[in-house]
Design brief:
The protein is α+β, with helices and mostly antiparallel strands and 220 residues long. The chain has two domains: 124 residues, Beta-Lactamase (2-Layer Sandwich), CATH 3.30.450; 84 residues, no CATH class. It contains six helices and four strands, in the order αβαββααβαα. Strands 1-4-3-2 form a four-stranded antiparallel sheet. Helix 5 packs parallel to helix 6. The termini are far apart.
């Protein structure tokens, strides 16, 4: 007894049709040159794809674009090759085919297949605007993330600059300004670091000490 549900191509098509309820832009077809099921018959452009696989047996995948009434479409195709002799039970001759299959599809199509012959192609199609929209969305997300990284880096650099340089230099400038006005109790130019600001702090401390000593000498 023949049950269409047991045929992988039929099951795949039915599953994909169910999947299209959530992803209506995608289409899937087991495009066949001489199918038993009329819905699987290859159209003109699908026939060209199948013929490419028949002429180039080493090809295992084909990706391309085509014009449609609604715009450009992207497709991916893989060959359907008869590699299992069990397939010929249904598709070799009318006499060998199950009666239930003949009753369902008739005896005019789907016969004469040969072992290792490419009889069709599995073709998945999607409008070009779908991958382009996804690419634009990905690019937008990437640019936003990149902008966020740059903004965070800018903020962190400013915090580091303020903490490591500006705040310390401002303190040194304030003490130096007080010392220049004769206030020797303004504070010490202290810095525990060994960087350039630390070297400057030590130099200012020495200058202040020399200035205090010089003023004491003048007083005496």
């Amino acid at each position: 007894m023949f049950l269409p549900q047991t045929v992988p191509a039929y099951a795949a098509t039915e599953q994909f049709n169910d999947l299209r309820k959530n992803y209506p832009d995608y289409s899937y077809k087991e495009a066949t040159l001489n199918p038993s099921n009329p819905r699987d018959r290859a159209t003109d452009w699908e026939t060209d794809v199948v013929q490419q696989f028949r002429q180039h047996a080493e090809g295992h995948e084909l990706i391309g674009e085509r014009e449609t009434p609604t715009g450009r479409s992207l497709y991916l195709a893989r060959p359907i090759q008869i590699s299992n002799p069990a397939c010929l039970v249904c598709h070799s001759t009318v006499e060998a085919a199950p009666k239930t299959m003949i009753d369902l599809y008739g005896n005019a199509n789907g016969f004469g297949w040969k072992l290792n012959e490419v009889v069709g192609a599995q073709i998945v199609s999607v409008p070009m605007n779908v991958p382009i929209a996804r690419a634009n969305a990905t690019l937008k997300t990437f640019m936003l993330a990149l902008g966020g990284v740059f903004l965070l880096t800018f903020i962190l650099l400013n915090i580091m600059l303020h903490t490591i340089v500006i705040r310390r230099v401002t303190r040194l400038a304030r003490i130096a300004d007080q010392v220049s006005l004769g206030n020797m109790d303004a504070g010490e130019f202290r810095s525990s670091s060994k960087d350039e600001i630390g070297v400057l702090s030590d130099a200012l401390n020495r200058m202040k000490a020399s200035l205090v000593q010089a003023m004491k000498m003048l007083d005496t």
